[in-house]
Every structure is written in structure tokens, then in C-alpha cells.
Amino acid sequence: MGDIETIALTMGASWASGINLYATLLVLGYLHLTGSNTLPPDLLIVANPLVMFAAGLMYVVEFFADKIPGVDTSPFAIENRECSNYFVNLIIRLHY
User: Fold this and answer.
1) What CA–CA distance (Å, rounded) separates 77 from 68?
2) φ and ψ at 9, to 5 degrees?
3) Which structural domain, as residue segments, surrounds residue 29?
């Protein structure tokens, strides 16, 4: 993968993670595993099934918590996002 492709992938992933970080991780990992897209060596951790599972789980939790009135605006939602980010980072660190 050349420099231009890496920059394009990084810019697209950055934009998509502004929409939902967990969905972005899951889609990038899925695309790499199916052979539809090749990831740079630094992003290959995203294709790990454990990271994909954690991202999918956090996406589902965040999706349904957002539908419950009061939960999405409570301090619990903020703490939940921080905990889930910690969880994804922990899985990535344990892998290496």
C-alpha cells in the first residue's frame, strides 16, 4: 500500500470514527478479513477477531443505550464510553 492509499484510508477512517468509533473498527477489520481491503501493518490489530468482537459488542451496547431516554444524557453514558474505550485499548495492549 502506497503513501497516498494509506493517507486516504486514514482520512476516511478518521471521518468515519467521528460517526461511530466501534462501527469503524468493526468494518475495517471485516474488510481486511474478507480481502476487500488491505490495511497498513500498523492497523492489522483491527483485523484481530477479539478486537472485532469487542468493537461489535460496544457498538451494540452504545446503540441500544442511546435509544433509552435519560441513559444517553446521563453521566453513566459518559462513563460507559470512557470504560469502553479503555476496554478496547486494553485488548489491543494485551495482544502485543
Assistant:
1) 11
2) -65, -45
3) 3-95
Q: How many Å apart are CA 21 and CA 58, to the nearest integer? A: 10
- Please give the model's pTM, rounded to 2 decimal places: 0.64
* pLDDT in 10s for each residue of the chain, 96 residues: 676 777 677 667 777 767 777 888 898 899 999 999 888 887 888 899 998 998 898 888 878 877 777 666 655 555 556 666 666 666 666 765
DSSP of 20-50: -HHHHHHHHHHHHHHTS-PPPGGGGGGG-HH
Give me the number of domains the chain comprises.
1
Q: Report pLDDT for 68.
A: 75
Distance CA 93, CA 32 (A): 20
C-alpha cell at 75: 453521566
- CA 96-26-12 angle, 5° bins: 100
Distance between CA atoms of 53 and 62, rounded to whole angstroms?
A: 14
Residue corresponding to grid cell 461511530: 20
